[in-house]
Design brief:
Helix content: 25-40%
Order of helices and strands: EHEHEEHHHEHEEEEEE
Low-confidence stretches: 1-7, 311-316
Number of strands: 11
Strand content: 15-25%
Mean pLDDT: 84
Number of helices: 6
Largest sheet: 5 strands, mixed
Number of domains: 3
CATH topology of the largest domain: Diaminopimelate Epimerase, Chain A, domain 1
Distance between the termini: 39 Å
Shape: flat
Radius of gyration: 24 Å
Oligomer: single chain
Bound molecules: zinc ion
Strand order of the largest sheet: 1-2-3-4-11
Structural class: alpha+beta
Length: about 325
């Protein structure tokens, strides 16, 4: 029998850069350089610490559930922003969770909730829906900087004429936003249409029928039924009324906490984490993950190193110790 005392505890990724840490590898090199430079300029000119972080999913850090507490915890763990003004900003994208958040320091109160929501909904998410992650993040960074300072990057010292020139150039991104939103919505409709459109039997050309959630079980293997039950994979079974042709299509859930089992390969693997040794700033920690497969009952453990806590004394390359009380806005795809 499988038994464990699990103390799942959120850990946070360390940062290796003050401005952009692209752990999900979704920002292209040119945009990463641009974002780094404008955020460095923002910090030099205004003292505002604004940092961008992309991760694959929060479960990697033993956080299961909404992105908001993870963002606030990370913000405070890193100490983003000046400690007296609490004016830091974190843009967090969790790619596989399909969630994002712009978290702001407690100095802003709730005044930024609405403008950040608008930037997420009108600028960033429409780009993401077209798989243009890099462009969406870059335009979002520009828009947040404009909201915070009233200036676009590169304009802190420039005269009025130069400013209006830049504004006209950037207006392009804003004008584009509604079209991107329409295209994004169309993408969603297209995926729905593609899943629901009638299937034609290759043997006799007749229209196939999609079976209901209960009828389809007869055509699914035990492992597939378990996946459906756990909602990690959804199956559509199409049958032909004229012959015995059957088509099975699988749709993987973005939100599942079940991984793929090493033995049976179904996405029916549950993992419970036990911290064996906490990480400190000088030493790595250790954790054990106990896996249990709800399909084949495989039962195995893995020990993993927890990376060192980010040091806050590494020669000027650290955040100012600011904190957040949960202000900002979230979005999902
Ligand atoms: Zn047929
Ligand atoms: Zn298994």
């Amino acid at each position: 029998m499988f038994a464990t005392q699990s103390t799942a505890e959120t850990e946070y990724p360390p940062y290796s850069n003050l401005y952009v840490n692209d752990y999900a590898a979704i920002i292209d090199r040119r945009d990463e350089t641009y974002i780094h430079d404008v955020l460095e300029e923002l910090r030099t000119e205004t003292g505002i610490e604004f940092t961008v972080l992309t991760i694959r999913n929060t479960a990697l850090y033993d956080h299961h559930g909404p992105i908001e507490p993870f963002a606030t915890g990370l913000f405070n763990h890193w100490g983003i922003g000046n400690a007296a003004r609490n004016d830091g900003v974190l843009m967090l994208i969790s790619r596989n969770d399909r969630k994002m958040r712009i978290e702001v320091g407690s100095g802003y109160g709730r005044t930024k909730d609405r403008p950040m929501k608008r930037i997420i909904d009108d600028i960033i998410i429409p780009a993401f829906r077209n798989d243009a992650y890099s462009r969406g993040i870059r335009s979002g960074v520009d828009a947040v900087i404009y909201d915070l300072t009233g200036h676009y990057p590169g304009e802190y010292d420039s005269g009025l004429i130069e400013k209006s020139v830049n504004r006209v150039k950037r207006l392009g991104a804003w004008l584009f936003a509604p079209f991107a939103a329409i295209a994004g919505g169309a993408g969603l409709l297209f995926r729905r249409w593609r899943r629901n459109r009638p299937r034609i039997c290759p043997n006799d050309g007749s229209r196939m029928q999609r079976l209901g959630e209960y009828e389809d079980d007869a055509h699914l293997k035990d492992g597939q039924q378990t996946e459906e039950h756990l909602k990690s994979v959804d199956y559509d079974v199409w049958t032909c009324g004229q012959c015995d042709h059957v088509t099975i299509e699988s749709y993987r859930s973005w939100f599942t906490r079940y991984g793929a089992c090493r033995r049976c390969n179904y996405r029916t693997l549950q993992g419970d984490t036990t911290i064996l040794k906490h990480a400190t700033t000088n030493a790595t920690g250790l954790k054990r993950i106990d896996y249990y497969c709800k399909n084949c009952q495989a039962d195995y453990s893995e020990t993993k190193v927890i990376s060192r806590k980010s040091s806050s004394s590494s020669g000027g390359s650290s955040f100012g110790g600011g904190s957040s009380s949960g202000g900002g806005a979230s979005g999902s795809l």
